[in-house]
Amino acid sequence: MDENLRREIILDNYQNPENRGLIEDKDYLKVNTNSESCIDNLDFMMKIEDGIVKDIRFDGEACAISTSATSIMIRKLIGKTVSEVKTILENYRNMIYEKEYDSELLGELNVYDQIHKQPNRIHCALLPSIAVEKMLEELK
Length: 140
Known about the structure:
Blueprint: H1 3-15, E1 29-34, E2 41-49, E3 52-61, H2 64-77, H3 82-96, H4 103-106, H5 122-138
Antiparallel strand pairs: 1-2, 2-3
């Protein structure tokens, strides 16, 4: 991916993140994720109905990588089945750790395909997937 396009996508999703802001609704799963090494501290909410992700919301303070990854991931996951979400998260994690993955499945999340070159940023990029995985665990 072109570096200018990568920067533009990350910056746009950092400055104008989608679904930022929490709401009061008991039907949402809720979780907090944070980083011990930087400012990232985000609260997440996810609503699942009939096995489909209907909404994901977040709020808190986070760096550009965490905020943009969250915005892009939310857009990618809403409307997907729980099974599809798990597949996307697995492929995303594989990409981050330089393992085999389906780049077509990830779409814009591919902007983080070089994050492994900055090991201190890996957790930042993984924060939204960690949150979604934790909320999916609550379903069991």
